[in-house]
Write a structure and sequence with these properties.
By secondary structure, the chain is mostly beta strands. The protein contains one helix and seven strands; from the N terminus they run H-E-E-E-E-E-E-E. A seven-stranded antiparallel β-sheet has the order 1-2-3-4-5-6-7.
Length: 185
């Protein structure tokens, strides 16, 4: 629940009226170039009555990973609806559209073709040919979530039972991920 929009677009506004998060994470500190991520999101309910809620959200992220350094930046907007289908159950559905930019800095990469049989030699031409060092474009996602909760506004932990099940799909429009002229990834 700390980053619900990353789990499923339909998680926007499911549990609370307003949910905001800010994450900073460093992974694999033992490697020469650890992965660093900054992520911020907010999800909320715009309008609601007892049986229907209009849900939405926004998130933005920045990733810096590995050698050669790969940068990923993006922003996504979420919109959907949550409908009460029973006394303790609801169904949410949402779509997302966003903008993503990825770029690479190949100059700090160590390439297999630069191994001379004994050791890595930075003076050997890597042979890597990039058609571009930056890609950008739209991305889209969709999701549904079934929610069961018997809390009915009470916050009694001993008797509260909650269950969520969902399906989410990201990058539905299959954005280009290849920096190579002959590659697809």
């Amino acid at each position: 629940d700390l980053a619900p929009l990353q789990l499923n677009p339909a998680m926007a506004g499911v549990s609370t009226q307003l949910h905001a998060t800010l994450h900073s994470r460093t992974q694999w500190r033992a490697v020469p170039a650890p992965f660093n991520t900054l992520y911020a999101s907010a999800d909320f309910r715009f309008k609601s009555n007892s049986n229907w809620k209009l849900i939405g959200g926004i998130d933005a992220y920045n990733d810096k990973s590995g050698e050669p350094t790969l940068f990923t930046n993006g922003i996504n907007f979420y919109g959907g609806s949550k409908i009460k289908i029973g006394s303790n159950t609801s169904l949410s559905a949402a779509l997302s559209v966003g903008f993503r930019q990825i770029s690479i800095r190949p100059e700090n990469g160590l390439w297999g073709s630069q191994f001379n049989g004994t050791e890595y030699d930075k003076n050997i031409n890597s042979g890597e040919v990039f058609s571009t060092l930056q890609l950008s474009g739209m991305t889209s996602s969709a999701g549904v979530v079934f929610n069961y909760s018997n809390s009915q506004g009470r916050r009694v932990i001993q008797t509260k039972k909650e269950f969520q099940f969902g399906l989410g799909a990201y990058h539905l429009n299959r954005p280009d991920n290849s920096f190579l002229s002959a590659g697809t990834d």
